[in-house]
Amino acid sequence: MNIRAQVSMVFHLDKCIGCHTCSVSCKNIWTDRQGAEYMWWNNVETKPGTGYPVRWEDQEKYKGGWEKKPGNGQLQLKMNGRLGMLGNIFFNPHLPSLDDYYEPWTYEYENLINAPAGDDQPTARPISLVTGHPMEIKRGPNWDDDLSGSEVYAANDPNLDGMSDDERQLMFEVERLVFFYLPRICNHCLNAGCVAACPSGAIYKRGEDGIVLVNQDVCRGWRMCITGCPYKKVYYNWSTGKSEKCILCYPRLETGQAPACFHSCVGRIRYLGVLLYDADRLDEAVGVDDAALVRAQRAIIMDPHDPAVVASAKANGVPDAMIEAAQQSPVYRFVKEWELALPLHPEFRTLPMLFYVPPMLPLQAIANDGRLDVTQDSEEAADYFGTLEKARLPMRYMARLFSAGNEEEVAAVYRKLIAVRVYRRASTIAGEPDADTRKVLAAAGLTADEAQAIFELTAKPTFDERFVVPPLAREVAIESIMDPFTHKTKAGFGFRREAKRGQ
Q1: How far apart are CA 32 and CA 48, in angstroms?
Q2: Omega cis (within 30) before 48
């Protein structure tokens, strides 16, 4: 057992209102400068939709993430091995183009004041921030907001590929149109494709907290990291010639503050905490079949209260304060204890450390001929979960997003979310759950105490309950993992780039 610490996140999609406050706060702090105008380290997409950049989930086009070799089943980057990377080093055909993002622009505001007198009202034409010339605006980072059912955006969602015409028709009927918001930041993966793809070794994973960073002094702008990241959360700064990405606001974390997008979230959908994981089981977790990927990723997350886990963490130099933060982590409760939060596209095999609680889909209105009270008798309570098959967004779609196609993993989460609502309705109306409500809880694998705890952490959490920010003790961590003579990372600690390459 080789226990490491990872700062991890949960986004509760049922509470996201799509206000983009998170994106604006991140933009104002980190990417409000030349060359970074098109970068959105935090962006909010409408699903179904094509996302940002366009169809980023289509790895047949972008070649991101990992895949198993046909013969021996070992993992390799989907973008090819080192020889293939070398062949494309001066021309990478799998990069998103500026059109896949958008050409950033401003407006010719001076013309509103300095335009000569005339019969027409002066206008402020859009001006490209790249070329400085007038341009026609065709796309933006949140261009598809609320366009559920659009034949341009929703219908071209890669997660709809393979669905039948009947399924598509049902999804896009006017009476059944539905959408939800999907905020995305860097997942700070355990098996990060960007780290493995970087030819110059500029991208590394901090050993003390798992945050993935780009060393700007080492980066040579090869942009293989952009291809290697299947989530397309690494960006190229056309002004500096360097790659940049979300740094999880580590300067804020190191001073005990939540990241900017977390702190500013209006819907309070974001949770941050520490997970302890067994690094010895990483190969096992990424090597299983697609249907077992979610279970395998949960399996490497260890109980922070287990004395053996604590002892191994301390042996690896994890500070006591970090272990205490892991024991209070809301992320652990959502991901491991309650099994409510799921990784985004686990089939990319990067082991993302950002998890999502799926949104409740519009399904209650079609339950039992429109009657919402499902606690009349045991049959109706059992039939309530059957409405998942009639949800406006099918389980097949949600499974392609959050469980590599394993519909039962997603359905199990929805059964728990439905059971919590049934429990809270019964508790509010009757004062306590009745026999049928207890049957619904049992069918979902929950107790009344667990349902109440889920409700408390979802609907009424305090700031300190949502964000358990550990004291990162950066200066202590550096001393513990750096060789004082060579000033390089000790191989025993493991997860920084230099140690992985044996330098």
Answers
A1: 29
A2: yes
Phi, psi of 67 (to 5 degrees): -145, 155
Q: Could you tell me the two tokens for 432? A: 């306590």
Listed range (52-56, 218-222, 367-371, 467-471) with the worst mean pLDDT: 367-371
Which one is predicted more confidently, 495 or 146? 146
User: For residue 253, which of 457, 455, 5, 34 has the smallest C-alpha distance?
Assistant: 5
- C-alpha separations of 395 from 17, 154, 324, 407, 456 in Å: 22, 17, 37, 6, 27
Alpha-carbon distance of 279 to 223, in angstroms, equals 28
Task: Name 106's bridge partners.
Answer: 127
Here the tokens at position 285 are 């977790």
> Angle 155-149-383 (CA atoms, 0-180°, nearest 5)?
105
Q: What is the pTM of this model?
A: 0.89
* Token duo for residue 443: 């069918």
DSSP assignments along 96-133, one per residue: PPTTTS---EEE-THHHHHPPP-SSPP---EEETTT-S
Please list, in sequence order, all residues whose beta carbon lies within 8 angstroms of the beta carbon of residue 387, skipping any fewer than 6 positions away. 363, 364, 366, 367
